[in-house]
Amino acid sequence: LGGPRVGTALCSALRMVYLTYCAARECPNADAFVVDVLPTGLPMLICWWMAKSALFYCHFPDKLLTRDTVNGVALDADATSASPEGQIWLLSLAKSVYQFLKSLYRAALDGMEETTMRYADLVAVNSNFTRGEVAAAFPTLTCSATSGTAAQQDDSYIQVLYPPIDLNKFIDPDFESKQRNVQNGKIGPIFSLNRFERKKNVNILLKAYAKLRRDFVHEKNTKAIPNL
After folding, report:
1. Distances (CA, A) of 30 to 109, 118, 130, 203
2. Cα 152 to the chain's mean position, in Å?
3. CB-based contacts of 40: which residues, under 8 Å, 6+ apart?
4. Of the candidates 122, 216, 221, 124, the residue with the CA atom closest to the CA atom of residue 163
């Protein structure tokens, strides 16, 4: 809702349902299905196609990736302060109506994300940090209860898949050589391997690098400052 990307999240959810349908139609006898990005196709996979098992790979909770938030924290953006005084009340009213409709829209999508994710036999994530974010965003995923009993914490449902590759096929890093390079100022550059968009919070890298430069300058060790 809002802006040029009206209903982007809803369209993405419907697209995943269609893609899941295509995968199940092409491989109806598969022993297991691996679904990622969004879990909205899982109910159809389990209930309609009677899939034997399904794993959902969660990159990050979609409910925390809305355009006006960073990791689920709302950004401050008040355009009414720069408007003429006579229009402030009208803009405030329009903003309130928009926020109310958007909250209903997001509540439906967030509830659907959590509910459909529970159809997976297992949820996999790529780090303990992501695991904590998923558990906090979707508390029902880690709660198991039977009729007449209290819900209990079930930490086995969300598993960390790390590293996702066989490290035995790689050359072991030479940490002693790296430490000598740091001391001699032969380090860097620092790379940011991600998309430059708000939800990646690249700003935290820039702040950390600025602090690193201040600390090195304070210690009069400018030759060891890596490039960014």
Report:
1. 29, 20, 28, 43
2. 25
3. 13, 14, 16, 17, 20, 112, 113, 116
4. 124
Q: How many residues are given for the chain?
A: 228
State in Å, rounded, how far the first CA of the chain is from the last one. Answer: 36
Element (H, E) at 150: none
| pLDDT value of residue 154 | 64
Express each pLDDT in 188-227 by its tens digit.
677 777 777 776 778 888 898 888 888 777 666 656 677 7
Cα–Cα distance measured from residue 121 to residue 150, given in angstroms and rounded to the nearest whole number: 22
- Is 38's pLDDT higher than 70? yes
CA distances to 64, 129, 188 from 23, in Å: 27, 30, 43
**pLDDT value of residue 4:** 47
Torsion of CA 213, 216, 220, 225, to 10 degrees: -70
User: How many Cβ atoms from other residues are within 10 Å of residue 46's Cβ?
Assistant: 18
| Radius of gyration for the chain, computed over Cα atoms and rounded to the nearest angstrom | 23
pLDDT, tens only, 172-183:
878 888 778 777
Average pLDDT, whole number, for the chain? 80
Outline where DSSP puts E strands in 50-172: 54-57, 69-70, 73-74, 122-125, 143-144, 152-153, 158-160
Whether 43 shows a pLDDT value over 70: the answer reads yes
H-helix or E-strand containing 34? strand 33-36
pTM of the entire predicted model:
0.69
